[in-house]
């Protein structure tokens, strides 16, 4: 199952809660993907394996955000079946190349070779098929979320093997000196410049939003990978809305 499958854009939430039922709910709701989060929150490689199972069972694309550029963690996320690995805090072209190298088998990279993993159907898949197809069936998403990355964006965009450039507005707001102010003119200006440069090169761009209005604004500007809020925040907003309406 591809991420876009001829869609103009895709939408999905971050998943921090450790119960894979949240992944199933996201699929039933009509989201295109889930970003299972290992950077923030309580999840571990052990817990997210069931998230990936749930995603695949319900035909929603499982993406795993690892906590850092860590070759072992990137390999593990892909070994247990993540379709994409999403890596935060990329600052240079060298960082981006390191991620690609960790996520891809030879000749595109040097990912650790093992076919006794879930992604290879626990060795039941012919090894020629697994190692031959893995580079095509898995993808790489990198976070651009600070002034250093912004200054190096031209070089980062030239790196081969990156499928999606993800702009992190919250970390970018902190880097711009206005932490949390994701709609501040400084933040928006930097984000728009990245979108424009990436789009000119035919690169897919993503970002994080917290409202349908914000999602539509970035889609209109050419963003195709929309990370919509976080499971706990979505639940909180729904609960708060119910309480307010009942008590009105």
Number of extended strands:
8
- Overall mean pLDDT stands at 96
Instruction: List the uncertain runs.
Output: none
Order of helices and strands: EHEHEHEHHEHHEHHEHEH
Q: Structural class, please?
A: alpha/beta
Major β-sheet profile: 8 strands, parallel, barrel
Percent helix among the residues?
A: 40-55%
Q: State the shape.
A: globular
Question: How do the strands of the widest beta sheet line up side by side?
Answer: 1-2-3-4-5-6-7-8
Strand content: 15-25%
List the main descriptive attributes of the protein structure presented here.
alpha/beta; single chain; 45% helix; eight-stranded parallel barrel
Would you kindly provide a written description of the structure presented here, covering whatever features stand out?
Strands 1-2-3-4-5-6-7-8 form an eight-stranded parallel barrel, surrounded by eight helices. Strand 1 (10-15), helix 1 (21-29) and strand 2 form a beta-alpha-beta unit. With 248 residues, it is an alpha/beta fold. The protein starts with 9 loop residues before the first strand and ends with a helix. The mean pLDDT is 96. The protein is globular and about 60 Å long. Helix 1 (21-29) runs parallel beside helix 2 (45-57) and helix 3 (71-79) crosses helix 4. The chain has eleven helices and eight strands.
Short description:
With 248 residues, the protein is α/β, with parallel strands linked by helices. It has helices at residues 21-29, 45-57, 71-79, 93-103, 127-137, 147-151, 153-157, 169-175, 185-200, 212-220, 231-247; strands spanning 10-15, 33-37, 61-65, 84-87, 139-144, 164-167, 204-209, 225-230.
